[in-house]
Amino acid sequence: MTDFQFMQKAQPTVALFVSDLHLQASLPRTTAAFLAFLQSHAAQTQQLYLLGDIFEYWAGDDDLATPYNQFIADALKALQAQGVQLYWMAGNRDFLVGQAFADAAGLTLLQDPHVITAAGRRLTLAHGDAQCTDDHAYMAFRAQVRQPAYQQQFLAMPLAQRKAIIEGIRKNSQDANQSKEMAIMDVNAGAIDTLFAQTGTDTLIHGHTHRPALHRLGEGPAGKLRYVLPDWEYDVETPRGGWISLTADGALHRHDVNGDEIA
């Protein structure tokens, strides 16, 4: 290995980006993989960005009384106590996360989208569901449930009732998705262009679609980069997962389920 190659490998990690873990008590291997990630890779970075659907669903911050949810919050808080800054962006499954959970987990809530400056470059962060504009039924549902008045009314219901409603919505969504074309559930190119124009950045990181990739949009100085995060699932025969890291030299790196860098 040359000195130059060693210097390239030795670049410290500034930030990690992860999404779509869909954590739940019924997926112990996925949970264990996330805890291992927090204790190893995340403990060695300065900032950790959780970009939505970290939980399979979130019925409200009063559900922190559930042991599993408190367990995850405690794990995040322990990481924050080590000096790592944690940031949370709502997904389509856990958009009801509020300040009580943020306080318990030691993290800062972000709006979607959000622009950060780190390691000398500006990045746009999003969950990704707001850009799936070809899925008209979902966009109508999203517009409804993101209204403060709707959320206030929903959160006033007993927790058990909220969970039953969410289970029904999840089942209906799964049934509906089986009849949808895959392209409809992906981001819309025009919506991505609009997001780049609104934020004035040339790099976007998002999740939601479960289609990990690096998309290069355009050529030359005007070209854009769209990084798509993978979803996590370790409780299957062929596990999947991964994350994106930003190193001090401003480079973004894609990592697979084992943490190895994807060329």
TrEMBL record:
<dbReference type="GO" id="GO:0030145">
    <property type="term" value="F:manganese ion binding"/>
</dbReference>
<protein>
    <recommendedName>
        <fullName>UDP-2,3-diacylglucosamine hydrolase</fullName>
        <ecNumber>3.6.1.54</ecNumber>
    </recommendedName>
</protein>
<dbReference type="GO" id="GO:0009245">
    <property type="term" value="P:lipid A biosynthetic process"/>
</dbReference>
<feature type="binding site">
    <location>
        <begin position="92"/>
        <end position="93"/>
    </location>
    <ligand>
        <name>substrate</name>
    </ligand>
</feature>
<dbReference type="GO" id="GO:0008758">
    <property type="term" value="F:UDP-2,3-diacylglucosamine hydrolase activity"/>
</dbReference>
<comment type="similarity">
    <text>Belongs to the LpxH family.</text>
</comment>
<feature type="binding site">
    <location>
        <position position="53"/>
    </location>
    <ligand>
        <name>Mn(2+) 1</name>
    </ligand>
</feature>
<keyword id="KW-0444">Lipid biosynthesis</keyword>
<feature type="binding site">
    <location>
        <position position="53"/>
    </location>
    <ligand>
        <name>Mn(2+) 2</name>
    </ligand>
</feature>
<dbReference type="InterPro" id="IPR043461">
    <property type="entry name" value="LpxH-like"/>
</dbReference>
<feature type="binding site">
    <location>
        <position position="22"/>
    </location>
    <ligand>
        <name>Mn(2+) 1</name>
    </ligand>
</feature>
<keyword id="KW-0472">Membrane</keyword>
<feature type="binding site">
    <location>
        <position position="208"/>
    </location>
    <ligand>
        <name>substrate</name>
    </ligand>
</feature>
<keyword id="KW-0464">Manganese</keyword>
<feature type="binding site">
    <location>
        <position position="210"/>
    </location>
    <ligand>
        <name>Mn(2+) 1</name>
    </ligand>
</feature>
<comment type="pathway">
    <text>Glycolipid biosynthesis; lipid IV(A) biosynthesis; lipid IV(A) from (3R)-3-hydroxytetradecanoyl-[acyl-carrier-protein] and UDP-N-acetyl-alpha-D-glucosamine: step 4/6.</text>
</comment>
<keyword id="KW-0443">Lipid metabolism</keyword>
<keyword id="KW-0997">Cell inner membrane</keyword>
<feature type="binding site">
    <location>
        <position position="208"/>
    </location>
    <ligand>
        <name>Mn(2+) 2</name>
    </ligand>
</feature>
<feature type="binding site">
    <location>
        <position position="173"/>
    </location>
    <ligand>
        <name>substrate</name>
    </ligand>
</feature>
<feature type="binding site">
    <location>
        <position position="135"/>
    </location>
    <ligand>
        <name>substrate</name>
    </ligand>
</feature>
<dbReference type="InterPro" id="IPR010138">
    <property type="entry name" value="UDP-diacylglucosamine_Hdrlase"/>
</dbReference>
<keyword id="KW-0378">Hydrolase</keyword>
<dbReference type="Pfam" id="PF00149">
    <property type="entry name" value="Metallophos"/>
</dbReference>
<feature type="binding site">
    <location>
        <position position="177"/>
    </location>
    <ligand>
        <name>substrate</name>
    </ligand>
</feature>
<dbReference type="InterPro" id="IPR029052">
    <property type="entry name" value="Metallo-depent_PP-like"/>
</dbReference>
<dbReference type="InterPro" id="IPR004843">
    <property type="entry name" value="Calcineurin-like_PHP"/>
</dbReference>
<feature type="binding site">
    <location>
        <position position="20"/>
    </location>
    <ligand>
        <name>Mn(2+) 1</name>
    </ligand>
</feature>
<keyword id="KW-0441">Lipid A biosynthesis</keyword>
<comment type="function">
    <text>Hydrolyzes the pyrophosphate bond of UDP-2,3-diacylglucosamine to yield 2,3-diacylglucosamine 1-phosphate (lipid X) and UMP by catalyzing the attack of water at the alpha-P atom. Involved in the biosynthesis of lipid A, a phosphorylated glycolipid that anchors the lipopolysaccharide to the outer membrane of the cell.</text>
</comment>
<feature type="binding site">
    <location>
        <position position="92"/>
    </location>
    <ligand>
        <name>Mn(2+) 2</name>
    </ligand>
</feature>
<feature type="binding site">
    <location>
        <position position="127"/>
    </location>
    <ligand>
        <name>Mn(2+) 2</name>
    </ligand>
</feature>
<keyword id="KW-0479">Metal-binding</keyword>
<feature type="binding site">
    <location>
        <position position="180"/>
    </location>
    <ligand>
        <name>substrate</name>
    </ligand>
</feature>
<dbReference type="GO" id="GO:0005737">
    <property type="term" value="C:cytoplasm"/>
</dbReference>
<keyword id="KW-1003">Cell membrane</keyword>
<dbReference type="GO" id="GO:0019897">
    <property type="term" value="C:extrinsic component of plasma membrane"/>
</dbReference>
<feature type="domain" description="Calcineurin-like phosphoesterase">
    <location>
        <begin position="16"/>
        <end position="212"/>
    </location>
</feature>
